Automatic annotation (TrEMBL):
Protein name: Protein ABHD18
Superkingdom to which the source organism belongs: Eukaryota
Lineage, uppermost ranks: Eukaryota, Metazoa, Ecdysozoa, Arthropoda, Hexapoda
Organism annotation: Cacopsylla melanoneura
InterPro entries given in the database record: AB_hydrolase_fold, ABHD18
Length: 348
């Protein structure tokens, strides 16, 4: 993996280590991966949080432009897995910015977006001043700023800054935010807010994506500077130098439960995602029918017979796919080297 100058600079000033206590307890991972079966399916996850889940508003302030509410609720994740969530993180804190213009607007149009925190974004002030207030001023969009578990008021007493002690903590953080977002979506509906959205920057964008997957109604999702996984950041990217790899390797070798039991649990819930996508493409459009889409079935082949790929569609072999990915990787490597100043820039 090619490292650009920004990564190099960030690593040079990164003094703290993440996951300083290692993986976490093997039994914690067992609980997490078992509970994951319920969280990773929208139908079961949605039912984990009731529509009337209690939400408390503790403080109200008003300015000429907006109302500011502060509130809290008990994290549902902490109720299901109480031993995994630190006591300080079991209560979720949030702020709400509501435009004063809504008071005179009779259209019942009350757009509201939840802002998830990026790495190191403690408390509320960054998102409130840099994102929520401009959204309110420019577009009359309300905002809910949710504080991350392990951050701000929810930071464990012995934790330093944003440095999570265990690898398991980041799974707990994601699980908490997924269910806490459901609490806030339900609260918004009870309060008459909508349409609803969720957004976040970097890690916050990833958490926003997780939260959006389990809401069964129309929802705006805007993940910024994020992807479907953060693994590359820790294994190859900017934070790889902050991970105590020797400690993690030593614990993995000494604790046989990780390899004998937990590793076997680390599978996709519905099988291999790539093969599922490939099967969907090969059997289209009959694959849509099996998903319950309201379309007319093709005359041939029938839905019970796998569709034959169109002669105009050239599905790649595994070797062709490998060659294509290698070519893309090389081009991206050259581009990254060029932008980082490691190669001579072309003239003009």
């Amino acid at each position: 993996m090619t490292i650009n100058r920004i990564d190099q600079l960030y690593r040079s000033i990164l003094l703290s280590k993440y996951f300083v206590k290692g993986w976490g307890k093997p039994e914690d991972f067992k609980q997490l991966f078992e509970f994951r079966k319920r969280v990773c399916r929208r139908e079961t996850c949605y039912k984990l949080v009731s529509k009337d889940f209690p939400v408390n508003i503790d403080k109200k302030e008003e300015t000429n432009e907006y109302k500011l509410l502060e509130g809290h609720f008990i994290s549902p994740f902490g109720q299901y897995l109480p031993d995994l969530v630190p006591d300080e993180s079991k209560k979720a804190y949030f702020q709400v910015l509501i435009p004063k213009a809504w008071e005179t607007d009779k259209s019942n149009y009350r757009p509201m977006v939840i802002h998830m925190a990026g790495t190191g974004d403690h408390y509320f002030w960054r998102r409130r001043n840099l994102i929520a207030k401009p959204l309110l001023k420019e577009s009359n969009i309300g905002s809910i700023i949710l504080e991350n578990p392990f951050y701000g008021h929810r930071k464990p007493a012995k934790q330093v800054a944003s440095i999570l002690h265990n690898v398991s903590d980041i799974f707990v953080m994601g699980g908490c935010l997924m269910l806490e977002a459901l609490v806030l979506f339900h609260w918004c509906e009870r309060e008459g807010f909508g349409p609803l959205g969720v957004t976040g920057l970097s890690m916050g964008g990833h958490m926003a994506s997780l939260a959006a997957t389990n809401w069964p109604k129309p929802l705006v999702l805007v993940p910024c500077l994020s992807w479907s996984t953060a693994s590359g950041v820790f294994t190859e990217g900017v934070l790889s130098g902050a991970i105590p790899w020797d400690l993690l390797e030593d614990q993995y070798r000494r604790e046989h439960t990780f390899k004998d039991e937990i590793e076997k649990m680390m599978t996709l819930i519905d099988g291999d995602a790539y093969r599922a996508g490939e099967h969907f493409a090969r059997t289209y459009p009959s694959s849509l029918i099996s998903m319950g889409e309201n379309i007319s079935p093709p005359s041939t082949p029938t839905p019970t017979t796998p569709a034959t790929p169109s002669p105009n569609v050239d599905l790649m072999t595994s070797q062709e796919r490998h060659n294509l990915l290698a070519s893309i990787h090389n081009k991206l490597g050259l581009l990254t080297e060029w932008t980082s100043g490691n190669t001579v820039h072309p003239s003009g």
